[in-house]
């Protein structure tokens, strides 16, 4: 006859409750004993009184066990219903992981597997339903998870880092920029924008703040050199940067059709400086980094957006519209 150590029995009972029960799935004492027999063999020595004591011990030590009382001759049923995350919260986490381009397909499946373990097996199966990982949009870079770990450490400890940076060419080959020379920066923050992870940092050589795609970093090294705390508003920086293109920051005014009000609020928030222009249009005034990304963003709205100022931005957008028009002339 197989005997189970008391501590082992208690831990196994917790595992059974965590993995096999939830709001919709309960187990009777007989079913719990059967689970133990499946694990330890049919001759395992276990009785209901010991299990009841174990359950009470779990409850007394803040492990949730819901007891469905005996009724009409039916036995008591037990389940573990309290979870750190609700099912819909886990669903949001899974959807975010699936949508993130900077996470490889293999890492996506590994992360989903870990998220599923945060609930019961039954609920975990629901999380797996209808999950489609589009490998065409997923990063193939194996360097990201290592870079993220090092970058978080460097940011937390305020230590200077070096790395190499690169881009793909027309032949889909990855080429290091600056002939492979090292970038030396003060890392301020990591942010997720446009489905990619970006490092925001002070670049010593240029003497300015820049951002870098994490999946394009190579050979990240944390130096012993540290830097003092510097206040930096990540959300303000990202908000002023369109499609993560760098540029000089200026005040701009753009006239939009009223139908775009929700798009603008989504981008700039409800505190944005928005003023009525006429019955069909409003004016947005904001600071933005003048760049190709800003020009492309404005052109997305076609005739429903017009630059008011500065004049240099007005002329740049106008020239781009002329170039586009020329492309479609026969």
Automatic annotation (TrEMBL):
| Extent of the signal sequence | none
For this protein, the record's InterPro entries field holds: CBASS_pafABC_assoc_protein, WCX_dom, WYL_dom
Q: Which domain of life is it from?
A: Bacteria
Boundaries of each WCX domain copy? 250-324
Q: Where is the WYL domain?
A: 150-221
Protein name according to UniProt: WYL domain-containing protein
Query: What is the protein's species of origin?
Result: [Bacillus] enclensis
């Amino acid at each position: 006859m197989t005997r189970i150590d008391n501590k082992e029995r208690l831990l196994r009972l917790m595992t059974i409750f965590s993995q096999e029960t939830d709001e919709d799935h309960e187990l009777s004492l007989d079913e719990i004993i059967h689970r133990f027999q499946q694990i330890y063999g049919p001759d395992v020595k276990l009785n209901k009184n010991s299990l009841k004591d174990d359950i009470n011990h779990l409850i007394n030590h803040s492990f949730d066990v819901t007891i469905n009382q005996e009724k009409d001759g039916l036995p008591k049923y037990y389940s573990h219903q309290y979870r750190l995350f609700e099912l819909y919260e886990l669903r949001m986490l899974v959807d975010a992981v699936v949508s993130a381009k900077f996470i490889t397909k293999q890492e996506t499946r590994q992360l989903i597997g870990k998220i599923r373990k945060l609930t019961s097996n039954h609920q975990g199966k629901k999380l797996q339903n209808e999950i489609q990982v589009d490998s065409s949009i997923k990063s193939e870079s194996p360097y990201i998870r290592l870079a993220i770990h090092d970058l978080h450490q460097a940011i937390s400890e305020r230590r200077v880092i070096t790395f190499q940076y690169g881009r793909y060419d027309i032949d889909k080959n990855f080429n290091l920029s600056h002939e492979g020379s090292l970038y030396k920066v003060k890392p301020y923050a990591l942010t997720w924008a446009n489905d990619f992870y970006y490092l925001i940092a002070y670049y010593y050589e240029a003497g300015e703040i820049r951002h870098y795609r994490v999946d394009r970093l190579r050979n990240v090294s944390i130096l012993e050199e540290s830097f003092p705390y510097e206040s930096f508003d990540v959300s303000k920086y990202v908000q002023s940067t369109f499609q993560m293109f760098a540029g000089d920051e200026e005040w701009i005014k753009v006239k939009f059709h009223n139908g775009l009000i929700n798009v603008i609020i989504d981008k700039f928030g409800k505190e944005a400086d928005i003023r009525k222009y006429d019955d069909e249009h409003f004016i947005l005034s904001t600071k933005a980094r003048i760049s190709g990304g800003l020009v492309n963003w404005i052109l997305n709205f076609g005739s429903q957006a017009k630059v008011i100022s500065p004049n240099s931005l007005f002329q740049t957008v106008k020239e781009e519209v002329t170039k586009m028009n020329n492309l479609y002339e026969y």
